[in-house]
Amino acid sequence: MGNRFTAHGSSAEPDELKLSNGGTDVFFDVLTLAGCDLAETAWEQHLVLHFSDGHRLGRGTDGFDLSEIPWTANWRAEKEFFLRLIDTAASRHGWDRLSYDPPYAAHWLTVYRAMTAGFTPVPATVPDPSDWVTAPREEQLARCGRHDLYRGEEGCRLCDTWIQPRT
Fold first, then answer.
1. Cα dist. 13→37, 68, 88, 144 in Å?
2. Tell me: the pLDDT tens digits for 15-53?
3. Whole domain around residue 52: which residue ranges?
4. Is residue 30 one of the residues assigned to a domain?
5. I need a labelling partner for 157 at 20 to 30 A (CA). Which of 23, 26, 33, 75 fits?
6. Residue 62: which of 163, 167, 166 has the closest Cα?
7. Which of 164, 147, 162, 142 is nearest to 49 (CA)?
8. Euclidean distance between CA atoms 122 and 42, whole angstroms
């Protein structure tokens, strides 16, 4: 199984990134490494937690479309943060904390950045209980002592031997 990351309505071609389960783990690892050091607002922290906790349960079903993100009226700043997050990950930020070399991650990030750049978010018109305006719980933002990543709901993703490659 694998995962599809899509940006329906994006002006970018392709508007889809297909990754294997292992590729999805790598993709989420590098986005989490960058995001934990960048996120400041509640919305930004929720986005990073999405990647931090992502692909732990229901493997093969964690892809998503950019339209599924709970964008707010402040979507321009949110999209700017998302692009900065991808750029920071592409600069190999924190990759020295990985126990492996991610040889394809830079390419995936380039494709995903183009998809995100070409996408115009539509803010939610009705408040949703799952919106990202309210700050995450403090325990979700607690950092792993070894990797300095958010613990989220599932614990540090780099400490999770189930999703990390065996060395």
1. 30, 19, 22, 37
2. 899 999 889 999 999 999 999 999 999 999 999 999 999
3. 2-123+134-141
4. yes
5. 75
6. 163
7. 142
8. 19
